[in-house]
Amino acid sequence: xxxxxxxxxxxxxxxxxxxxxxxxxxxxxxxxxxxxxxxxxxxxxxxxxxxxxxxxxxxxxxxxxxxxxxxxxxxxxxxxxxxxxxxxxxxxxxxxxxxxxxxxxxxxxxxxxxxxxxxxxxxxxxxxxxxxxxxxxxxxxxxxxxxxxxxx
Length: 152
Known about the structure:
Blueprint: H1 4-21, H2 35-57, H3 72-95, H4 97-116, H5 122-146
Helix pairs in contact: 1-2, 3-4, 4-5
C-alpha cells in the first residue's frame, strides 16, 4: 500500500490538472498559460507510472481495505489545519491579508504546540502572538512594499 495509493492519487491529480488547464486561454503550446501546468502534470504522470507498476506487482491492492478504518486522532491531524486554511482564505476578503494571516499563523502555531507538547506555557503563548505578527509584517513589507505585489 506504500506505492499503490500515493501513485494512484498523483495520477488522478495530474489528470485533474491537465483537465483544469484546458480551460485557460488558448495559444501556442509553449507560450500559453496552460503549458507549464500541463508539463508538470505530464512529468508527474511519467514519474509515477513505475511506482504504480511496483504497487500492482506487489499486489498491494488487496490491502486497501485497511484504509477505510480511519481513527479520529489521525483524521484530526489533517482536518484542523485544512479547516483553518479554508477559513483563512474565506476571511482574506473580509478582514484582509494582514489580520487573517496573523490569526491563521497564531492558531496554527498553537495547534502545532498543542500537538507536539501538551504543556502550553507563557513563553509559547507569547511566541504564538509575536511570531505571526512579525512574520506577516515582514511578508507584507517584502511583497507589498518592496516588490509591489498587490496583496488581498
